[in-house]
Amino acid sequence: MKTHRLTFAFQLFVTLLAAAFLMVPAGASILAGFTANYFRGVSSGLTLDWVKQVLALYSDTIWLSIGIALGTLAATLVLAVPAAWALVRRPSRLARIVEEVVTLPVAVPGLALALALILAYGAIREFRMSPAFILTGHVLYTLPFMLRAVMAVLAAVDIRSLEEGAASLGASPLQRFFHVVLPNAKGGILAGALMVVTLSIGEFNLTWMLHTPLTKTLPVGLADSYASMRLEIASAYTLVFFVMIVPLLLALQVFGRTTGSAR
């Protein structure tokens, strides 16, 4: 019993130490966004002026990131859910190959994927200069996460047997998709949606290569603020980024625990 307590105490100490190692820099950055003068510290006073300046200077990057994330979510839903249904319904060597090809962008560095898009479509000026170019990259990058999440849920509930039962009652393929597949896939769809939106908002490497001066997203604007603005403004921008991304991460964790408990 004593050995178990010592082991638990050591594990707790290591966990808290690792958490502090990760959280202290983030906390210091957030605090800098509230201080009137970072080099004088908290004694200089607390203010929201830096946050206001971020919203005034970079609000377009925030809205663009939200728009691209929602567009990416819509595209992945339209592409991944029917694809997952088809791959689970007819498992074969070809289906496995298709699945691996779709998930290939996860293994490819974001910079390489962005370079491939530029080489393939960079000559189309209107497309290259529009947010749709970044959205295309985000769809390619996040599609595997939605696909795998939905496939895992459909495979777990044995969707083929449920479909066969619905078909024996006279349901058409379209009716089976909307009334059998989608209700049973909603857990995977929600988990995939949270991952897609989180990854899209936070993606930097791919977006850095694809963006133009008129299509800066939140992470690109954050890098720009650290490079060209006062440290307090960059820290306030970091705070805005955390406010957007942390709730999504928490929701993903809560959903994962809820799904695990239900299973």
Automatic annotation (TrEMBL):
Family recorded in the similarity comment: Belongs to the binding-protein-dependent transport system permease family.
Organism this protein belongs to: Xanthobacter aminoxidans
InterPro entries (UniProt xref): MetI-like, MetI-like_sf
Membrane topology reported for the UniProt record: Multi-pass membrane protein
Protein known as: ABC transporter permease subunit
Sequence ranges assigned to domain ABC transmembrane type-1 in this UniProt record: 62-252
Matching PROSITE patterns: ABC_TM1 (PS50928)
Major subcellular location class: membrane
Transmembrane portions of the chain: 62-88, 100-121, 133-157, 177-201, 234-255
PANTHER family: INNER MEMBRANE ABC TRANSPORTER PERMEASE PROTEIN YDCV (PTHR43357:SF4)
Domain of life per record: Bacteria
UniProt keyword annotations, A-Z: Cell inner membrane, Cell membrane, Membrane, Transmembrane, Transmembrane helix, Transport
